[in-house]
Amino acid sequence: MNVDLVCATQQNNRVLIVDDNLTNKAILEDILHSNGYDTRYASEGKEGLNVVSGWNPSVILLDLVMPGMDGINVCREVRKMQLPTRPSIIVVSMKSDKETIVDSLAAGADDFIVKPINEAELIARVRAQLRINEFYKEIEEDKRNLETILAITTAMSATLDPSEVLGTIVSKVAGITEAVRCSIVLIVKEDEAYVLASHEDPAIRELKLDLAKYPEIKEVIATKTPLALNDVVNHPLMSGVKDSILDLKDMSLLIVPIVFNDEVLGTLFLRTKKKEHGYAQKEINFCRIVANSSFHALKNARLFEKVSKEKEYLKEIAVKDQLTSLYNHNFFYSRLEEEFERAVRYETPLSLIMVDIDNFKLINDTYGHRVGDVVLREIAGMIKRGVRKTDIVARYGGEEFAVVLPHTLLKGAVEEAERLRELVESHAYAGLVTERITISIGVASYPQKGAMNSGDLVNFADDALYKAKWSGKNCVKVAEV
Prior knowledge:
Order of helices and strands: HEHEHEHEHEHHEEEHEEEHHEHHEEHEHE
Number of strands: 16
Radius of gyration: 39 Å
CATH class of the largest domain: Alpha Beta
Strand order of the largest sheet: 8-7-6-11-10-9
Strand content: 15-25%
CATH topology of the largest domain: Beta-Lactamase
Shape: elongated
Number of domains: 3
Number of helices: 14
């Protein structure tokens, strides 16, 4: 096969012949086939338009004088069509007057050849149009790339949420590159990273990666340069993980670093169907531009993550007791009021357990407050583990605890209180020699006579606890009805 034939087959080499003369058709097909072009034929205008719509040829060789729709009108209709790529139209006609040529070009034709056909001239003009087509494709590609970059920069300025920005980046890049997976990976430390956004699954956020399994990402971090792998499975870099990536044998990878102040913050990670000739330099350059414009969003994501953790911590310390990690006094009252209102509205039972550690002052006086704190933490943990997940456990005061039990009748609350009492009594406490720790418990429930609000329920449970203390301690007492 000669060089010209190779060039023709590598391009989009589809040529449509629209001509009602079978002799002309045979001549054109013979010339085109011998030069490596793929052809189709239509004998009249409307048939030709149908072929254009379904086959998307690169070049149309069009006769002017045909039955039905003539060549001029075919030109006009083709130019109205919304096609994936713009086909070149070369008019091939017996007419050679200037008026015919001008009318053809005005209707949308790109070139004009006068019959009889000269093979060298025809092939030269077809090749010229294919070169122009490639130029058009490059312009369209550059336009899409610019539009994508504009959309990304617009997204960055439109929201402070880095997740939204990163989601826009991966979806836009995937659309341009036809990637089956486009992700942004945040590098945390040498062997740890997180997928912050992936276009194939918008729900993926902060998916942890072990970089020991991703030598291609580690290579990009080390070199700070893009890496394209067209034969992923057999690339020497991937030899250590080859057995775990056999499903990627039909894939190509492109990893582009996102660098700020000479530090790799993350990577743009693309996986596409295997590329016969590898990633084009234009694709790599486009991804580099996107990566360079992404670092602000990635930097914000790091800051956002830090601020979010600080907010969660501040939120937690606002409602948690620092010593026991149980809910604090204020949060207890807030939740009890919510649960009481819900119980009244839906006519469901609600119980409250109040717990006090017996003789706790003696523990502090004998062993010191550090041992006392250990005892408090251990009892808090036992209570937390001993109740249901739906129950609300709080540190009510110094050595007092409270448990809110939604949807629980008095009988069930008493049984749970007794289990807690036995659990605390049978436990061996670190740092104590002979002392035995016990608790006294008071239980109250709604509906109960006189319980009009959450405060009443606390008072009833507290009275029951007081009664347990005066009854010898280490027991469970129920509020009097």
